[in-house]
Amino acid sequence: MELLLEREYHSSGTNGILSCRDQFICFTIELPWRKNQRMISCIPEGRYQLVLRFSDRHQWHLLVKAVPDRSLILLHKATHALKELKGCIAPVTELLAPGIGKKSVDAFDSLMLLVRSALEAKERVWLTVTNLSDRYASAAA
User: Fold this and answer.
1) What value does the mean pLDDT take over residues 120-132?
2) Distances in whole angstroms, Cα of residue 13 to Cα of each of 18, 28, 75, 116, 133
3) pTM > 0.90
4) Locate the DUF5675 domain: which residues (predicted)?
5) Is the C-alpha dihedral spanning 79, 80, 86, 87 positive or negative?
C-alpha cells in the first residue's frame, strides 16, 4: 500500500494531506522544517516504510523506518505540533493553523484501520512525503 503525504511548510508548523490512491484519509500536522534537526524539525521529503510499533506511552502506533539521521519517528495522536511532537507526524481531522489540528484520535483510528488491514494482508506500507506545491508545479508544466 502506498500512502502520500503532501505538505505545506510554515514557520510555526507543517500541515499535510494524507491520501491513498487519490482518496483523502486525513490531514496531518508536524513541526516546521528546520533542516532535519533532531527533535525540532519535520523529517525530509522521501519514501519511507511504515510498520506497527507498541509503546506504553502511545500504545499501538506507526514507526517511520529509515529516516536519514533520525530515529523513532512515529505517527501518533497529537493536536499541537510545537507542544506535543518531536519530529513525529500526527493525523488530524481538521487543520486550525500551521501545526495545529483537532480530533486526532478519530483521524488516527481511521488511519490505523487502513494500515492494519494492509499489514494483515501481508502488504508492505509505504509513505511518500512531498511538497504540496510540487503537485501544482507539475500540473502547470
Assistant:
1) 97
2) 16, 10, 16, 28, 16
3) yes
4) 5-115
5) positive
